[in-house]
Amino acid sequence: MAGGVGARFWPLSTEAQPKQFLDVMGTGKSFIRATFERFLPSVPKENFLVVTSAIYKAQVMEHLPELSESQVLLEPMRRNTAPCIAYASFRIKSVCDNANVVVTPADHLVTNTVEFNRIINKGLDYVSAHNSILTIGIKPSRPETGYGYIKQNCETEISEIYEVDSFKEKPSLDVAKQYLSDGNYLWNSGIFMWNNNAILSEFKTQLPNMYADFEKGESVYNTTEEQAFIDNLYPACQSISIDYGIMEGAESRCVIPADFGWSDIGTWGSLYTHLEKNENANASVGGKVVFDKSSGCIVNIPADHEAIIEGLDGYLVAYYNKNLIVCKLDDEQEIKNLVEKLK
Amino acid sequence: MAGGVGARFWPLSTEAQPKQFLDVMGTGKSFIRATFERFLPSVPKENFLVVTSAIYKAQVMEHLPELSESQVLLEPMRRNTAPCIAYASFRIKSVCDNANVVVTPADHLVTNTVEFNRIINKGLDYVSAHNSILTIGIKPSRPETGYGYIKQNCETEISEIYEVDSFKEKPSLDVAKQYLSDGNYLWNSGIFMWNNNAILSEFKTQLPNMYADFEKGESVYNTTEEQAFIDNLYPACQSISIDYGIMEGAESRCVIPADFGWSDIGTWGSLYTHLEKNENANASVGGKVVFDKSSGCIVNIPADHEAIIEGLDGYLVAYYNKNLIVCKLDDEQEIKNLVEKLK
Q: Complex ipTM, two decimals?
């Protein structure tokens, strides 16, 4: 899934170049490229499908030149994750009767790819033998309020995999602290695994209209008529997330707790926590930065740019493509509104 | 005089594009262009001479296309203002026996050009009739510590012009306050007027070696051999300012007090005082800026750029040509050192 708009990383992320195509960590690889490479030990390159907005097709092909154009599924507009996954599931069905599938956002960070692939392979083994919807749950390291949580049923373990007791919305800080001390709550990574027939069966039961709409195209998937069919279908599609549409009500929901250095890097603050800091806890990505009388700052500028940062404590400073922001990290939730004011 | 390097306006000013070629006020005109246009009511365009570094010749011609190349005198290296003025004076002598001259920096701000031209014309009238070195002294509006001062002899007025009692170095704040309350101290604008024979006579008396060196070229000024002569002469030239070399010891020194909205715009802070502010005392030049929870800031970005400034009080934020600075205005004297650290 690579259709996100990533408004919170302005000015690096814009509608024209959302987060999945950026290298906000300064690793030399965009998120989508790093995601692709992370899965390669477990998934042959011809088995990847990227679902994205039509406007990002060229960028996907540029970042993932190993893929053929037929591997990039183009949504004519945003309709949240359920239609995106329904589309991909019907496409997969048209080429493979019994595929095991991993669904993942294309803009997350993972630092331990060996453990990541071990978890993916264990999960794929599980869903190939069980008619179950499997989520990767991240073992929490702090009372994070920016993630949804999964409560695991600790008495149900089979080979590291547990039944899900319930899915939880983003909590308040007090609730998040309680979750952390309880020890049986995991962060919802948004990475799912299932057998393709299992998820199609869930769509048929829980989102029957959506299922019926996509089923009408069974004869056109993987043909030259597919795009026209999708372009015609999408505008009327219900915009709903896979979490609300499917996960909450699925017949068999499992979770595999994991600890492979994961972050969704959803905010500048979370990016800051993952970067190397200097002696005054300042972090920078890109070009040379001279810090003076400053601490706890994150600076992101292009590699061939230079910056002087003087007298700032706890700020974000970012410049990209003629757009500049200086903002207290504590106030970064305001960025989206302030970007609106620029328009 | 347009040879300055303007290091304090980094990143707008750089050695490749010093302050005189910039439009830091956002008026649509560079300082050198505005200076040229300001003098046009009093001085025919063919009478201008620009003394600058050889590396800035193309930029001068671009900003002042009305000038011929012969009006741009090129210094092969910086040697402060006395050699610059000696060179121009000998060039003037070669084409006009009895010229009245105004010497001015090319990177100052004047807001009342009518009053400016009135003062210039009054001064030129005076020096055409008196063998005197005349300085424009600015009536001080605040106890500024960034300017040199001129103490006028208040009992000597002739048609708005006074004898100079003494020149004063940049004062401490206490001394500046005393100057302001005394009422007979003026800011030294660095704008001088004289008859060309008067200044040459002062050079002959006070800087006889420099005078002799430039006099050796009397046959080559305004010929094709002039540049080679200057290029050969300059390396050994004494580097000294006109203030120390000539003003302090001149036989007859006068000052004309003036009030035409002058600033040397020598710092970001002085630029800030001259810009229009919004309701929270924020000023910006160039592209659109959204301020939030901010006050007393100055932001300078290119006209086609945009910026969000959140949570800053009393800061400079400037971006130009791949270089970015965020700095407390109170600390702006550090900028020069911080730029050195980038190198």
A: 0.81
